[in-house]
Structure formats: structure tokens, C-alpha cells
Amino acid sequence: MSLGSNNPLWAVIAYALAITTSALLLRFFPRLQRSVQHTGQQRFSSVDGLRGYLAFGVFVHHTAITWIYLHTRVFDVPKNYFYAQIGLASVALFFMITGFLFWGRLIKHGRHHDWLAFAVSRIFRLYPLYLPLLLVVILCVFYLQGWTFEDEPLVVAKQVLAWLVFDRPDINQYPQTGMLISNVTWTLSYEVFFYLALPLFGMVFVYRKNWKQAVLCLLGIYALYQVVGWEHSLKKHILMSFLGGIAAAYWVRRPQWVAWGQTRLAACIALMLLVVVLFMFRKSFATAPLLLLTAFFCIVASGNTLFGALTLRSIRWMGEISYSTYLLHGLLIWLLMHRLPVVMQWDIQQPLVFVALAAVASSLLIVISSLTFLFIEQPGMLAGKKTVRWLRQHTPLKTTQSVKDDA
Q1: Per the database record, which ranges form the Acyltransferase domain (predicted)?
Q2: N or C: which terminus of the chain carries fewer CB neighbours within 10 A?
């Protein structure tokens, strides 16, 4: 079996290494076990388990892209449907998870939604890990350029500011700076747009008052789309994936639908739909695959564990660390598969060398993500909760209901 065969078995091996690493970490570190127990008690634990598969799927996708680049010097989506979709479909499902969780909270709490906690928690969820990553990217750029300024310092400062809002201009004229992290931050632009637009969507569809308010909110959403789109070129067909999560938020409020969604038949249908998307479509952000992924996600959101695949302790932990996995895997790929072979004078185009490094990356990614979750993400989320309490104590604004927000 050659790497050029695009055999899904390579992905299966990578997942096996990651899951094994996660299981070993859980076995020998009790602190991780406590986090997994907490995750398993949540209402949508199947969704949390799904995150683990999705984040690692994006890593597999970018590893395949790296193999293509090493032989063609072109960064391109794999022509093989499976290795293209394992990343694209994972991102689409991530957007559905966002739509599902936050729209569900909007439906549940209505006018009592705690927008202060929501806003603060999103900032402290995204940035505590992103800022150190950005610092590493800047250091790598200047190291590769001999610690010299190719642009004026003020210009470099503007480039860094653009990165702070998840744009990815070249820093200090280093070509394709975003490829140091596989350009993964493009999805955060869509997440941020959804967060900013959520109050306006809520006033239109959840706690509407009158038609004038609805019109003003829709105009506000359009203006926000244009403002965010100036830098990030938001695409409507990608934004459609959030609708799948919103549909699931209504699905889980129908007891009869949830009951069916938890059956073995539903699990078989969900897996069949996923296989169809992975092997029969090249794109995920199109009407047909998004509808199939929405049906798949509704079944998972119902609490279906897909025959236990979503409730494995190792997978639940991978779901817990999914943001670290997603955000850091591009840098790890760049270090191991672009820089290390240069330093060690290895021929990375040789299949055995590439496979060996990919195997190391599969396990190392879980270890690094576990560390960054424990020492950066968790403290960041805790700081966000403390900030909310401080703001409530020092501002006259009061909310009638506190909303737990730790997604």
C-alpha cells in the first residue's frame, strides 16, 4: 500500500495512535480523568465526543495536503474525496456544533440570556491559546529572516493587529505566513461573525417585538456581514452550515424525534450518511452534503453514541482538548514536516520518513493539546468567569439569570 493510493487506512492508523495516546494519558494522569467525568455528565456528551473526531480529522486533512505539497509544491485540497472531506466536513460540523449550542441557549433563556457572560466567555475562550500561538508564529518568522525587519516596524505592527482579528497577512514579508499554522484561523472569522450576529438574530427570530425592530436587526446583520467581510471575505455557502446546528437545536426539543434519534436504526442511518459525504462528495459547503451532514448531526445531538464510538473516555478527552488540537496542529505539522527534515537532512519525500513523522505528530499532538488545555485553556476559562463576576460587581447592569457558558 503506497501513500499515493489515498487509502483511508492511513487515517485509521493515525486515529488509532491518537486514541491510544489519549487513553494512556487518562490512565496515568488522574487530573485528566476528572475532566472526562465532568464531560460525560453533560447533556450533549455525544456532541462533545464528536468534537474529538472532528479536530483530529482536520489534522489528517492537512497532513494529506502536506504530502501533496512536498511532491507538487502546491498547497491544494486532496483530489481524493475522503482526505478532502475529512477536513472540510469536520469544519462544517464544527460550525453546526456552534450553531446548535448557542442557538439552543438562546431558545432556552430568551430575553434572560446572559449576554455579558456570553461575550466575556467567548473572548476568554478564543484568545488565551491564540495569543501564545501568534507569538510563536512571529518568533518563527523573525528567526527565519535572521531577526531583521523586512518591513517598517509600524507596518509589521499593523500586520500583527490584523492577525489579532484572525486575518492572516504575510508578516514582515515572509511568504504565506499563514501556512505556518495551516491557515486554520479562517474558521474563527466565521465563528466571530456568528457570535456578533447572534443577538440580532435573536431579536428577529426568538424574542421578536415588531416588524420595525426585525427590519433594523436584519439591516444590522447585513452591515455586520459587510464589515467582517472586508477583511475575511465571508462566504454565504459556508455560513449556511450554522443553519444545520440551528435546525438540530429545534430537533432536540421534540421528544419523539429525540427518541427515534437514539435508536440503533438512527445510528446506522447516521453512519451511512457520513460515509456518503466522505466518499461521494468533494465539497462539504454545498446544499446536498450540508443537508446530509445536518441529518447526521441531528441524530448525534439526540444523544446517539453511534454504538459507543462517541462515549469512549479517550474520545471524550480528545473532544475536551479539541480547540487546542485544531489550533496547534498546523504549527506542529510545519515544525515536524517542513523544518525538522531540513535540520536533520532527512528526505521527507520518502514514504517511510513521512509516515514516521506523521505517526509521531499524531501522538505528540494529543500530548501537547492536553498540556495547553490544562495550563492555558482551563485557566483562561476560569479567568473569564472571574471577569464576569468582577464586571457585575462594578457595573450597574444586572441579569436576572446566570447562563453557564463553557462551550
Answers
A1: 45-368
A2: N
317-354: pLDDT as tens digits? 999 999 999 999 999 999 999 999 999 999 999 999 99
Distance in angstroms (rounded) separating the CA atoms of residues 100 and 248: 6
Q: Domain ranges in the chain? A: 3-394
Asked if the model's pLDDT at residue 40 lies above 60, the reply is no
User: Amino acid identity, residue 20?
Assistant: T
Reported as a single tens digit per residue, the pLDDT across 358-400 is 999 999 999 999 999 999 999 999 999 999 999 998 876 554 4
